[in-house]
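Kindly draft a polypeptide, keeping tokens residue-aligned:

***
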Amino acid sequence: MFELVGKCGSDFVLPSYHELENVPLEKTMKNTINMLKYIYDWKKTGCSIICDEWTDTKGRFYCHFLINSPEGTIYLKSIDTSDFSETIEKVFKVLDEIFEVVGEESIVQVIINNAPNYKVAVEVLMEKRKRIFWSPCVIQLLDGILEDFENNLSHHQIIIGKCKKIIAFIYSSTIVILMLRDFTKGKDFNGPTITRSATAYLTLLYLIDMKDALIAMFSSEQWKSNKLAKTKEGEEIQQIVQDCRFWREMVYCLIFAVPIIEVLLKIYSNEQPTMGFIYKEMNSAKESLQSWNNIKGYQTIWKIIKERWNPILHPQYIASYLLNPQLHYDSTFKSTSEVNEGPSAWLAKMVIDYDDDLSMTAENLKKIEDQIADFSTSKGLFGSEDANLMRYTKHPAKWWDSYGKDCPELQRMAIRLLSLTCSSCGSGQSWTAYDDEQVYPKKISCLFQEKLNDLFHVIQNFKSSIQRARTKKG
């Protein structure tokens, strides 16, 4: 190191403490911001603002503000939302600032949780920003459905409770873990941890998969000769595993839970553009459940789904189903009154004229409706050989980019809609780099807090850029 300093010559001036402390972070922050500006073409694809709430180990609430586009998710900033009375004003202020920085023409929707204070904040924002929609996080919605299954159906509670007992017992002893692996040929209960309720039902699936091995293990001489077999807890677990009614009830629980879990996993995995498929996936899940309408608990299950899903069946979900070429041209596409009339509220917002010229808005709306008719009848480029070949293989938004040129107004709207996410979660991305006490300590100077915020911003977006690179690499 000293040799390197010596090579700089006698005129070399050592950097000051301030330069060493601040300049590297300032440069990195600037590079991060510049990188974000050039990577995303938000005016074309649109983007979503995500309000993602977290709770730290001390029970304090924080809201992370993110931007999602087809290229990935960017961390913007976080605020402390522990004080409920201040949350509405705080959230509105930050969202409004984001609109000013990013540009209203680039933002299509705001994704929030279902907490009343967030809803009010976004409703206030929508009074000012007429073109935007709000959406709930669909993963949180589906988790809520599964949570309601468990809380409102006693046999679900009992079965999940017994499954938790089995797993807790097995993992409390290294000997029992090794014994299980002998019978399962190395299989384990490890699986994706998505949400609390989804994980509870996934545990049931893992147990069903290991049913024969578990019954064989708890019937074996190897188990009977183990001292744990003679304990009260060991006898209880053995009795549960060897009870045929336990496995039968588990199947009944999964009949209702699996269709919801399948939708949740598709959204979480990011395997397909979720906005264009969520309406179809939820309808498929409901149809699957309807075929079991003679099973105990069906009416309660159906009521839970309706109460959770119907209030948030926003017009953009229906519009994305209508405009998704993979679904629209498929033989299973259903042109119901809901599908034909549902998108009207979304279309009306998207064609709002900022000069309040109602005649221009009406003219634009009529033009869009005519273009939807052209899309439905495969007129022009929509019916070309290439367009037909690429319907099921190309990303829906990219398909519109390639073959929607005859209908430029509808093309722009379809690209922006079908590029959207419908979740604040996905791919296991965590936006908490370390304990929030480190980012938001109670006693700290304003200057140092600003520095911590910049550091947190750089870290989160660095993590996100690595994840994007891994996703592209496959």
Observations:
- Strands lie at 47-55, 61-69, 72-80, 107-112, 133-136.
- Residues 50 and 363 are 33 Å apart (CA to CA).
- Residues 311-418 form one domain.
